[in-house]
Write a structure and sequence with these properties.
The complex is a heterodimer of chains A (475) and B (255). Chain A is built from 24 helices and 12 strands. By secondary structure, chain A is α/β, with parallel strands linked by helices. Chain A folds into 2 domains: 298 residues, 3-Layer(aba) Sandwich (Rossmann fold), CATH 3.40.50; 67 residues, no CATH class. In chain A, the strands form 3 sheets. Chain A has a 6-stranded parallel sheet with strand order 1-10-7-4-2-3, sandwiched between helices. Chain A has a 4-stranded mixed sheet with strand order 8-5-6-9. In chain A, helix 9 packs across helix 10 and helix 16 runs parallel beside helix 19. The termini of chain A are far apart. In chain B, 64% of the residues are buried. In chain B, helix 7 crosses helix 9. Chain B is of the alpha/beta class and 255 residues long. Chain B has 2 domains: 121 residues, Rossmann fold; 113 residues, Rossmann fold, CATH 3.40.50.11810. In chain B, helix 12 links the parallel strand 7 and strand 8. Helix content of chain B is 49%, strand content 14%. Chain B has 13 helices and 8 strands. Classes of the chains: A alpha/beta (475), B alpha/beta (255). Chain B: GO terms for molecular function: oxidoreductase activity. Chain B: This is Lactate utilization protein A. Chain B: One of its GO terms (cellular component) is cytosol. Chain B: It holds the Pfam family CCG. Chain A: InterPro entries: 4Fe4S_Fe-S-bd, FTHF_cligase-like_sf, Helical_ferredxn, LUD_dom, LutB/LldF, NagB/RpiA_transferase-like.
Chain lengths: 475, 255
Amino acid sequence: MNATTRTGFKARSDAALANPTLKTAIDRTTGTAERKRAAALAGFAEYEAARSRGSAIKDHVIANLDHYLEMFERNATASGAKVHWAATESEACDIVIRLCREAGAKRVTRSKSMLGEEIGLPDALGSAGIERVETDLAEHIIQLAGEHPSHIIWPAMHRTREQVAELFNADHKPPPADDEAASMVQSARHVLRGKFLSADVGISGANFLIADTGATCTVTNEGNAELTTTPPRVHIVTAGIEKLVPSTSHAMALLRLLVRSATGGELTQYTTFHCGPKRPGDADGPEKMHIVLVDNGRSEMIANEFRDMLRCIRCGACMNHCVVYRQIGGHAYGGTYPGPMGAVLTPVLDGLAQSRDLPFACTMNGRCAEVCPVEIPLPTLLRAWRGRSWRAGLEGPRMRAGLAAWAGLARRPGLYRMASGIGVRALRLLGRSGWIGSLPFAGGWTRHRDLPGPTGGTFMERYTARGARRPEDRR
Amino acid sequence: MTRATRPRVGLFVTCLVDAMRPEIGFAAIRLLEDAGCDVEVPTRQTCCGQPAYNSGDDASTAAVARQVIAAFEPFDHLIVPSGSCAGTIRHGYPALLASDADWGPRAARLAEKTHEIMSYLVDIRDYTPGGLRLEGSATYHDSCAGLRELGIHDQPRRLLAAVDGLEMRPLDGENVCCGFGGMFCVKYPAISDAIVGEKADTVERSGADMLLAGDLGCLMNMAGKLNRRGSKVRCFHTIEILAGGGNGPAIGEKP
């Protein structure tokens, strides 16, 4: 859980809106992602069929989760891995810390895992006095900056290349040769290489947990997951239970959707299957492999209105196409996961009272659901949170009173006619020139834009005045 | 066309059109009559309920929904000059009343015969407006609810192609939300402003004289932003143009 949850969403989003460098960074990354995804899908004729199949695979697994969890545990255990079960984020961190201590670990390497962020593993390792080395390039940047990811695919997308150069110049010894991307990548490789080889434990996430083989699967474009999981003595996987798929072919069906939706590529550079620790005769690999399966609110979602969210394969397309995310970036959301999928998940993870703005800070334009590769009805789920918020009485008294007054009128057409007639006349007095530049009770509107004044009496007044047919009167 | 084959349609005016721009309602009546419909305007209508629906107040929404259903179920069709309100009646009402043995099926039946006006004119009435001439250029913004909840994309373009002299210009990001979002624009005004600011940029870059769309909420948002910036782009609901109102006052212009 991010510490920023404690401060207000409005303060965070205002700060983001006032930061032109952030906007430049967001536009660069999401703009490229949008274009590349569109190009990738243009060449993927069977996309809609693949999307239906992907959704069906996830739905099937969620409906039979107990079956596949047991199958996965059986097969992973047979491969020599040890499976651990964590109901909550703190349980998950406790297990990982205990395993690190049992291994006598002083230094652990970690490849990017949003589940790890969700359970607060980076902070937990720090508190336990274990040196943590983030090996994903963007996570390396985040670690140097002391920040949390702002995007689930590009954690450091809020930082421009120029800002990254500053961080590297301050931290890397020797510093990068220049500020070109290639030099900076080379510098990070140099810094990380020694750590890869000297780590005691490597911690990774999993993009898929494959039930019929007991293997975990990671996909990366940097190869850092392979170097994180292979040289250390112990490999620990942390993964949410919704990552299960029945078999490798199902994982491949979802991978085709994941990569195209996330980066616009056809395949990731590295797709690696981890099946148990090093066996006799293997050239390399960890002596021990542990898999920590994390629930953290997921099994509760199976039984409530947020079940469809368990289909999510964490591609980030919803945030790349979200008008709100593209203005405020990821940190303003205040949770582990930003954007539309984050606005659904953060109230699950952090509580609705803590994150009530998120489901409301959405125009309900539906583009997120349109680009979702597993057909998650994100606006419907956000609306479900709005309903819960209303029923829990979390709205302010002004909002409740205003809506109650509106609802009282909306249910009494005669009274509504009278009230709207009066309101329109008042607005017309203010808007004699056509436009209204300032309205005391609608400052949210007129601070930024003019309000076109009413053009005359209400439609109903004018319609009635012209002696039109009124069916009710005839009955 | 004989009386018997003329559909009897109920016009759902929408609260915004009722209060702010009745011309859109009269344009709707003109077009529907020209397309061979008998148009009536039930006076028992107020609003589709979106202020409550989008605030999570399902009980108030359901009360308004029942009122709309009762007022409009006698008609062959319910026609709305808004994709957003049409989407709420078509998708929101049946979902909201699904577990109600009486109102659930009635909501579903009304949903089936509810249409946004441009899609109704093209898809159901196969209508092409005749004798229209308007000199100038226009660009079209796809309002989100119409586009994604109802699949309205080609219909307005086909109707506008019948206007002689009107040059249609492409709008970069035509399918990107304008930042209105109902209550969103007043609850999160700064975010909404940033979104509509980008929309205004693309509208101005299109070089068009006019901005057209199918939802008054979105239009008021975009027109209000364009005017605040001193832009000369004139904004109309598409059906105002189709009903011959393109030379009249645009949104915000003094009547």
